[in-house]
Amino acid sequence: MEKPSDISRIKLVVTDMDGTLLNPEHQVSDRFFELFEALKTKGVRFAAASGRQYNSIVSKLQPIRDQIFVIAENGGLAMQADREIVSTPLNPTTKNSVLNTLRRNSGIHPVLCARNNAYVAGHSSEFLSVLKEYYTEFEIIDDLRGFDQEVMKIAAYHFESSERHIYPLVSPFEDSLMVKISGRHWVDISHPNANKGHALKIIQGELGIGPAETMVFGDYNNDLEMLALSDFSYAMANAHPNVLKAARYMTKSNEQMGVEVVLQELLKSLD
Length: 271
Known about the structure:
Helix 2 (30-40) packs parallel to helix 11 (258-270). The protein is of the alpha/beta class and 271 residues long. The two termini are 25 Å apart. The protein folds into 2 domains: 12-87 and 195-270, HAD superfamily/HAD-like (Rossmann fold), CATH 3.40.50; 92-190, Hypothetical Protein, Haloacid Dehalogenase-like Hydrolase, Chain: A, domain 2. The protein has helices at 17-21, 30-40, 54-60, 92-102, 125-134, 162-165, 167-170, 196-207, 224-227, 241-246, 258-270; strands at residues 12-16, 45-49, 69-72, 77-80, 83-87, 108-113, 118-120, 138-140, 153-158, 178-181, 186-190, 214-218, 232-236, 249-251. The longest helix is centred in the C-terminal third of the chain and has 13 residues, at 258-270. It has an 8-stranded mixed beta sheet, with helices on both faces. The chain is globular, with a radius of gyration of 18 Å. Helices cover 32% and strands 23% of the residues. InterPro entries: Cof, HAD-like_sf, HAD-SF_hydro_IIB, HAD_sf. One of its GO terms (cellular component) is cytosol. Pfam families: Hydrolase_3. This is HAD family phosphatase.
């Protein structure tokens, strides 16, 4: 993919977290925070967009949490500091239907994602150790089907492959729900309007910023809708083939700090 000729018009940078901004150890680099501060002085705004819960995202971006937009739960919830921008919870009548379908494969581990907490059935210590990376707040309950509070989405995990073992089971729900392969091991099921693009479009409208002034980074299928809202859409070198095809440009992998490489170029273009 070729490089864009002029990125000096950018006013909003939006990046996915896992596989994109976060390195393979799930950390944000010190260089990113330096670039964030420098770009802020140039009037560039920033949004983090992830399938992670809100608390997990801000824990990674603690120094700047009140200065950014946070698109959590794949767009089901969007916040700016303490202000709610978007909330599209899952219809409660469909929750148990999805859970019953997931039960057909014992290797699938479902998570009920509420606004401030997540809920799992504690049957696998191995899965709980994985969960701690993505969910800073979670609770073990006996039966997910008996949970009667608001749910933003259902996340489902498989240790081998979400695309092979989870998606075929839940793909029939695509007629009425948003079903996204959000990572090698994860599939998310949520409200039909709960996607990162829906939340980003609302943020763009609030800021009066269009696609020609928006830069977006992503690596997986749950990033496709927001990539489509940017004239400067970047796929990571480690991205899913669908993302590599959809994005206009490509940067280095998350291991090689591909987001920071482009942000350095953006900063230089604004000097």
